[in-house]
Amino acid sequence: MNPKSVLKGRGAQLNVPNRFFEFSHEIRNDFLEYCEKEGEKPDKNKTRYLEVFPKTIVNKVESPDIGMSYSMNAYQGCEHGCIYCYARNTHEYWGYSPGLDFERRILVKKDAPKLLEEKLKKKSWKAHTIVMSGNTDCYQPAEQIYKITRQCLEVFLKYKHPVGIITKNALILRDLDIVKELAKDGLIGVNISITSLSEQTRRVLEPRTATIKRRFETVKTLTDNGVPVNVMIAPIIPSINSHEILPLAKTASDNGANSIAHTIVRLNGAIGDIFTDWIKKTMPDRADKVLHQIESCHGGSLNDSRFKTRMRGEGKIAEQINNLVRLARLKYFKNKGMPKLNKELHEQYKDGQLKLF
């Protein structure tokens, strides 16, 4: 590998064309940031935060493969730069590339707390767990500036409403005061994504995420404070982190996690080209092997959109991975699991509030 050919501090190494646009464009903004310690010039690696104003914030999830009914995303795009991220494709709907634009053009929904409160106040709304980060991480670096996630958690607490969180950032500990209060009433479940025990792997796979050590510390701190935590070993990528399933599961259990979950990597849409470019630059010695093994999990293709098979894969390699995860659950998480969240408190809260009128 030629280090000079790799853009440090980022996952994607290029901007693939947006399939919805035939012309190029650029949006300018005053919020500029770049990874100085990695030595890039600011004109090559700046992040831009752009405010957007959606009319709604809570989305119904239709996929039968995802264990959530509703999700919300305070940010679109994610500076974490995880090369495999399925959310990259959604950036095209906003007019951007799913490559570097996804990591460097972060759309900020400052009205999210207000929109969430309007949703929860509706007489017609029945409590369902709303998952923050169904698409992009609610504790990505932008949250340090805008604190939108914290404001939304305050709304969930106010209305006694169940909420789920998916993150790979230790920044959630900043909000431990609110998270603990939600946990006391069984209103929150946290999913911490940990894909490797190797810092070297993390740096290239998820360049701007919290370290592995910090993530396990986060699991332990949360569970020590009565917050249920599921560790997401996701995605599992053959010949990159597939050999780490059992030690990852053991470490998660040792740090108090209630359960583990997994998916097998799938590279839909533009992600296939982005991932292929990335692995040939960062892991040229095993690029072909990895790509072929991913294809073997999805009927000979990097892309797989089929419900009920796309997350678990098929074929011998996928079967081996799924069996290892089952073994890990039996070995390290027997008689453990994530609790069901409390939906009754919100209904009682609404009833009590309506009686005031």
Q: How are strands sequenced across the largest beta sheet?
A: 2-3-6-7-8-9-10
Instruction: Supply the number of helical segments.
Output: 12
The fraction of residues assigned to DSSP E strands is 5-15%
Rg from alpha-carbon coordinates: 20 Å
* Range of helix content: 25-40%
Mean pLDDT: 89
Beta-strand segment tally: 10
Q: Structural class, from helix and strand content?
A: alpha/beta
Order of helices and strands: EEEEHEHEHHEHEHHEHEHHHH
Keywords:
alpha/beta, seven-stranded mixed beta sheet, 34% helix
Describe this structure in words.
By secondary structure, this protein is of the alpha/beta class. It is 34% helix and 12% strand. The chain has twelve helices and ten strands. The protein has helices at residues 100-104, 112-121, 142-146, 148-158, 176-184, 199-205, 212-224, 245-254, 271-282, 287-296, 315-332, 344-355, and strands at 48-51, 58-60, 70-72, 75-76, 105-108, 130-132, 163-167, 188-193, 229-236, 259-264. The strands form two sheets. It has a seven-stranded mixed β-sheet with strand order 2-3-6-7-8-9-10. The chain is globular. The N and C termini lie far apart (68 Å).
